[in-house]
Amino acid sequence: MLKKFFTIFFFILLNNAYAQEKIAFIDVNYILNNSNAGKEANKQIEIKQKKLTSEFEKFKKKINTEKKTLSNQKNVISKEEYGKKLMDLEKEIQKYNSKISKKNNELLNYKAKSKTEFTKNLKPILAEYSKENSISMILRKENLLIGKTELDVTEGILELFNKKVKKLSLN
Q: Each residue of 148-171: b (16+ CB within 10 Å) or e?
């Protein structure tokens, strides 16, 4: 009887010791969007996106004008000339669509590169923070269903990230 009691008591102590492991979570997107380096990277992405949109809008206006001009000339020029101009216009549209697609892919690659660079810079900061604060595990907030707000270390990580990372090297 006494042996069973000590065995049960030992397992309770053992479980309690494991329960003392410190776990925390962070909001990675919050750090990306609110860190100085993340804000700068997002600003560059936004500039590239606006430039691409502006180019696309200019081309759309140009094509619409050319279509309207061609439509107005339909009855004035010969069918062969009309067909040739229409084919040239369609080739120009295809060529531009290819160019836009390429630039869009470049933008997506730039976004992916910025996230990769951000993660590369964040990992050693997380390791340092967890070591200094005796944290066994840091989880992503997106992967949690529920957790105590006291376990959220996002602000501490953000502060450390801003001190250590001034800019993401994306070029």
A: eeebbbbeebbebbeeebeebeee
Beta bridge partners of 152: 25
- CA 22 to CA 91: how far, in whole Å? 63
In a 10 Å sphere around its CB, with 0-12 CB exposed, 13-18 middle and 19+ buried, how is residue 26 labelled?
A: buried
pLDDT tens for each residue of 42-82:
999 999 999 999 988 998 899 889 888 888 887 888 888 88
For residues 85 and 111, give the distance between their C-alpha atoms in angstroms, rounded to a whole number. Answer: 39
pLDDT at 19 over 70: no
Q: What SS3 class is residue 5?
A: helix
SS3 of 138, please? strand
Residue at token pair 């200019």: 58
- Residue 81's pLDDT is what? 87
